[in-house]
Amino acid sequence: MFWKKVTKKKTYDPRIRTPFIRSSICTGEKVAGFMNSETERFEEVMLIRTPADLEEFRETYGIEGEIKTIY
């Protein structure tokens, strides 16, 4: 029997937290997370290895549109 991965919906406050992808210039490693506009700190949420990982991040938090990348 095959089991489908269940993605639990999570929320974030778009007035305070902005979704970003942080990418390393040296290694190319990408991490999805949120930038807090009050403290200007980046909170890592998940490692992005494939386009499916990015899609999972979008679905989990209900993010539509472009996600900016910071280096």
Report on the architecture of this protein.
The protein is α+β, with helices and mostly antiparallel strands and 71 residues long. 15% of the residues lie in helices and 34% in strands. The protein contains 1 helix and 4 strands; from the N terminus they run βββαβ. A 4-stranded mixed beta sheet has the order 3-2-1-4. Strand 1 (17-23) and strand 2 (30-36) form a beta hairpin. The radius of gyration is 13 Å and the shape is globular. It starts with 16 loop residues before the first strand and ends with a strand. The mean pLDDT is 90.
The largest sheet has its strands arranged as 3-2-1-4
Fraction of residues in β-strands: 25-35%
- Overall, the morphology is globular
Span between N and C termini? 42 Å
Topology order in helix (H) and strand (E) letters: EEEHE
**Helix tally?**
1
Low-pLDDT segments, ≥5 res: none
Number of strands: 4
Classify the helix fraction into a percent range.
10-25%
Largest sheet: 4 strands, mixed
The chain-level mean pLDDT equals 90
Q: From the helix content, strand content and strand pairing, which structural class follows? A: alpha+beta
Rg over C-alpha atoms, rounded to the nearest angstrom: 13 Å
SSE layout and pairing:
Blueprint: E1 17-23, E2 30-36, E3 42-48, H1 51-61, E4 68-70
Parallel strand pairs: 1-4
Antiparallel strand pairs: 1-2, 2-3
What's a concise summary of this model?
This protein is of the alpha+beta class and 71 residues long.
Structure keywords:
71 residues, alpha+beta, 4-stranded mixed sheet
